[in-house]
Amino acid sequence: MTLASIDPVRLTQILRKNEQAVVVGGGTGVLRYDTNQIASNCPIEDDHSEAVIAAPPGSAGKSSGDWMFWGVYDGHSGWSTSAKLRQSLIAHVYLKLAEEYASVAAPADADIDNAIKAGFLALDNQIVWSNVEKVKKLGTKHAGAQLIAPAISGSCALLSFYDTRSQLLRVACTGDCRAVLGRRASGSTWSATQLSADQTGENPDEAARVRAEHPGEKDVVKNGRVMGYEPSRAFGDAVLKWPRELSMALRKSAYARRPQDRDITPPYLTAEPVITTTKIEPERGDFIVLASDSLWEMLSNEEVIGLVGRWIDQGRLGIGSQKQWSVWDMMPRFSSSDGMSSNVLPSKLPDSEKPFGRPPVRPAQWGIAKKARVPVVQDINVATHIARNALGGDDHDLISSLLLLSGSNARRYRDDLTITVVFFGYDE
């Protein structure tokens, strides 16, 4: 089999293997959300989770409507940490929020943010510290390694929390996953608003924060990395959070990582998220795209939002049909003859107001110009639609080549990819 020999039908099966679409509706202000994952590592190190939960009554006994959560987790050095986030992060955040709403009918914005942060930090504390004493008492390295696996590997996390009553969307970001809001602008264009900042050593604000926390350690941030790690915030990665002596001891008893010689004043990473709040306008057909950094290495914010706009224009907002929701029926259309360049020209925020985000790097690595990819619309699941176009659009040879790469060679050219798209609006 050559690199260009995946049959088109088989290629589509591979792209659609992990796709999911969930209709919400019911007057909640959320129509549907689509997800998909395409692996590079084996097993895949990314993960995701979603939940629609009846909000607990406030202190006055009034219902708070529905709380909706969508999480994307970009694991590294293994899958254990991201799997733990899938299992537990929404629950930890929900419990902290419920505690806050139980004491105050209408908590202040800062208190809601602090509850979300407390949920993140409580889970990371559990991951990093809860099994340390157990491992010390065990007599086998194998069992010890299993117990602390989520602490040894690491994961970035992006969690969106939508309150249907207030129509406020909070995006909590730990690491370099990214959330972008798509909103109809004027005429036939969409605006692309980045709702999270990429938290890496390349981010000037993050680099300054880390250096301030570790004065005198001149190489704590070097070449855009924090102690050699790209994300400046993450769950797990305990070798950068444990004291050096503990890391050395666990290395002997449970295959933990060896700390670096320059490891002087841990912790160097934190799981505390940066949170943004956005007022959603369901009546305008807002949508958000949440994805691991692999997507943003392939496409810009504007390109991704433009691709979703093209997909909406082609009447794909339905499951297994061409049905369209009324919120889009009343909106102007893109011309069917428009190319990629027309679809990805949403209005832009001034540069001074845009959160830090790294530009796409993969197209140059693949040896192609971005405009060489012509977009196609052939998937009902919008997350699959984005993934197909990120990997090559109408270039069957390029997509085939990238999907057939395996092992460490695959990781050099594409990372694990996880995409979630949420459509806001009111059904008929």
UniProtKB/TrEMBL annotation:
Which Pfam families does the protein's record reference? PP2C
Protein name, as recorded:
Phosphatase 2C-like domain-containing protein
Can you list the GO cellular component terms from the UniProt entry? mitochondrion
Q: Name one GO molecular function term.
A: [pyruvate dehydrogenase (acetyl-transferring)]-phosphatase activity
The PPM-type phosphatase domain covers which part of the protein?
50-424
Family annotation (InterPro entries): PP2C, PPM-type-like_dom_sf, PPM-type_phosphatase-like_dom
